[in-house]
Amino acid sequence: MLSVAKILLVIISVVLVTVVLLQSGRSAGLGAITGGGNEVGASRRNRGTDPMLARITMVVAFLFFVDLIWIAWMVSH
Fold first, then answer.
1. Mind telling me which residue stretches traverse the membrane in this protein (predicted)?
2. Is the pLDDT of residue 37 over 70?
């Protein structure tokens, strides 16, 4: 059962990293660090998938922590 939980943890970790990398950044690149102005293309960015990806991130992160607690419980008992 412990090996199943560890395999599940690896799968959840890969999914979590992938979903986080698919999200668009809040700062819109290095121009925001130096105080650069708003480019023409940045204001027309498609934000249709961002709320869905944020929700998926929350669910996968919750599953990640539940699996970690499950593994810790199995190891200690």
1. 53-75
2. no
